[in-house]
């Protein structure tokens, strides 16, 4: 049989990345990145210029179609592969990135009469303006003893489907009524590719509290939240929910014309970006924690028993790899924190110096920060610039740096921010361990391990564990392509299971990052201090972060 290939498309926070991979060995024959033309919409709406409130984060669904139009034809062109040799397509997406669509499946923000309403647009995963709804969901679910709540660490996040849908109902009831379905962007893109709406069980499980046997929370629970929500599951969340690797459908004629692929090419149901990365890095058995390190970090772990761990983003049966429980935890901002400092925090002389040296600002800071020993900066930070996802699940918490002096340098601040995110990951690893879900090995993938060696060494030192690094530059997209090959099936030259695909296609680098004992000893002391600050500011000893946020809101209105 001639060679066969699959295309995986990873929709990240800032860009969409397509890879065309050889199904015999997973080699990435070509890849292409399309930056979203509208990026992250967090200040004003495109067109109308309507100003957005704080904590809002939207996207333009048309940008997702641009990724299909630009990156798919480009990977075909660059690869030299014939379209008929591409037998499957898979996509993964940030989640919960949700949008309201009308009865034709069109986003409400495509309707000119609705474009000036922020609620008609895509709510990106990092949209945190539904915290009030999330807090109310948690109160009611806890009071009712809802069985689903412990599976999500005891708290539902404002980043997820139920809180976001309820915010739309509360703030734009007319638009809520005009909504036929709330869809994950992953499922909406698959709908664009196939003409069929097929919800995937991964985003439903982790982001909409759906359970393989119990389904969504029952209508009595929704009614207890708000009588208007009672029919939510049967109406705006309705539709079949399918396991990962299921063939959602085949490429339509129209999409074949736009992408350069053959009509009838198999398309897998969508997936979550971090979850697709797990088989992409070759992890298909328990005990191996995969860190998808980018704008955020998602911590993915397989297990065999259902354990309820504080602040987990969910434990879902078959959620990552069929046959296992899939655990997810995370940190809402990691790369985003470094971006904030590089864009908003460094003094002009750093920009000028980096420009003169012909390097990026990250690289300028990294090189100088690497010259410091652990503890030498005298700084300690809490990595909550975009709230805390795990283990506190509270988007009203904010960032903190302790230890500034008149001599503090930018590279010292940069190092403290890198270290703080490592402490946040150690907190999550210890929560898994203490909760009875073993973590034996660490794997890292995503954009950060490829860009910042100091960061990875600090993670090895802080966690005192060796870290394996994905060989792929686009691990989530590789994983998505593997699911595309499963949707095509072995008879077509694909695979009949994601485990079979992973065994043939996934790879890690020979090089790993190993802990340095002298560093570990100091970081153990710093982590103890991090824990004290974590509990003081995060568990109610002081609500100063929330009071400051309330004063900010009051000043704005
Ligand atoms: N040299 C660097 N060191 C640390 N972070 C970086 C560096 N270069 C870019 N970043 C951060 O990486 C993040 C993007 O990660 P990536 O995995 O490519 O994207 P996504 O989160 O969309 O999947 C951004 O937040 C950016 O600020
Ligand atoms: O929340 C999830 C996965 O559950 C991610 O989609 C979200 O953190 C965004 O991931 P990135 O950092 O953009 O890769």
UniProtKB/TrEMBL annotation:
Keywords: Arabinose catabolism, ATP-binding, Carbohydrate metabolism, Kinase, Nucleotide-binding, Transferase. Its EC number is 2.7.1.16. InterPro entries: Carb_kinase_FGGY, FGGY_C, FGGY_N, Ribulokinase. Residues 290-488 form the Carbohydrate kinase FGGY C-terminal domain. Residues 5-278 form the Carbohydrate kinase FGGY N-terminal domain. One of its GO terms (cellular component) is cytoplasm. It catalyses: L-ribulose + ATP = L-ribulose 5-phosphate + ADP + H(+); D-ribulose + ATP = D-ribulose 5-phosphate + ADP + H(+). It holds the Pfam family FGGY_N. Pathway: Carbohydrate degradation; L-arabinose degradation via L-ribulose; D-xylulose 5-phosphate from L-arabinose (bacterial route): step 2/3. It is an enzyme of class 2 (transferase). This is Ribulokinase. It comes from Paenibacillus solanacearum.
């Amino acid at each position: 049989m001639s060679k066969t290939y699959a295309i995986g498309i990873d929709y990240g926070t800032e860009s969409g990345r397509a890879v065309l991979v050889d199904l015999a060995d997973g080699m990435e024959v070509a890849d292409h990145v399309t930056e979203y033309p509208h990026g992250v919409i967090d200040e004003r709406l495109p067109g109308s210029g309507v100003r957005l409130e704080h904590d809002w984060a939207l996207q333009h669904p048309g940008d997702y179609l641009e990724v299909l139009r630009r990156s798919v034809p480009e990977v075909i062109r660059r690869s030299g592969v014939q379209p008929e040799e591409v037998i499957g397509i898979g996509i993964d997406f940030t989640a919960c990135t949700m949008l309201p669509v009308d009865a034709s499946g069109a986003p409400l923000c495509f309707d000119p009469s609705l474009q000036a309403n922020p609620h008609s647009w895509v709510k990106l995963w990092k949209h945190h303006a539904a915290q009030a709804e999330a807090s109310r969901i948690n109160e009611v679910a806890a009071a009712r003893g809802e069985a689903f709540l412990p599976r999500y660490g005891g708290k539902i996040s404002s980043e997820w489907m139920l809180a976001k849908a309820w915010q739309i109902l509360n703030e734009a009831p007319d638009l809520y009524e005009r909504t036929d379905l709330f869809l994950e962007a992953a499922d909406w893109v698959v709908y664009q590719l196939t003409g069929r709406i097929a919800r995937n069980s991964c985003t439903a499980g982790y982001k909409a509290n759906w359970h393989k046997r119990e389904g969504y929370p029952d209508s009595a629970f929704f009614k207890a939240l708000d009588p208007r929500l009672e029919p939510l599951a049967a109406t705006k969340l309705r539709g079949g929910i399918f396991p990962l690797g299921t063939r959602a459908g085949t490429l339509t004629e129209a999409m074949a014309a736009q992408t350069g692929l053959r009509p009838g090419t198999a398309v897998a149901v969508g997936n979550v970006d971090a979850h697709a990365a797990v088989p992409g890095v070759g992890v298909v058995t328990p005990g191996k924690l995969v860190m998808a390190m980018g704008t955020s970090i998602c911590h993915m772990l397989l297990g065999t028993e259902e354990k309820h761990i504080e602040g987990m983003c969910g434990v879902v049966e078959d959620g990552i790899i069929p046959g296992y429980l899939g655990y997810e935890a995370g940190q809402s901002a990691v790369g985003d924190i470094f971006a904030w400092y590089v864009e908003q925090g460094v003094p002009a002389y750093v920009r000028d110096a980096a420009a003169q040296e012909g390097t990026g600002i990250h690289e300028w800071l990294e090189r100088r920060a690497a010259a410091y020993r652990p503890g030498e900066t005298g700084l300690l930070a809490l990595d909550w610039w975009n709230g805390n996802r795990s283990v506190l699940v509270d988007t009203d918490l904010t960032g903190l740096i302790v230890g500034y002096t008149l001599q503090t340098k930018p590279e010292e601040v940069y190092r403290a921010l890198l270290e703080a995110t490592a402490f946040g990951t150690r907190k999550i690893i210890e929560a898994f361990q203490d909760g009875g879900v073993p973590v034996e090995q660490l794997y890292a993938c995503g954009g950060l391990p490829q860009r910042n060696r100091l960061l990875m060494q600090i993670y090895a030192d802080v966690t005192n564990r060796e870290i394996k690094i994905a060989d792929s530059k686009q691990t989530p997209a590789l994983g998505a392509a593997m699911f595309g090959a499963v949707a095509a099936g072995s008879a077509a030259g694909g695979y009949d299971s994601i485990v079979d695909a992973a065994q043939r296609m996934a790879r890690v680098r020979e090089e790993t990052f190993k802990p340095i004992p002298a560093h570990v000893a100091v970081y153990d002391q710093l982590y103890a201090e991090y824990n004290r600050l974590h509990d003081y500011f995060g568990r109610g000893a002081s609500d100063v972060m929330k009071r400051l946020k309330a004063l900010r809101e009051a000043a704005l209105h």
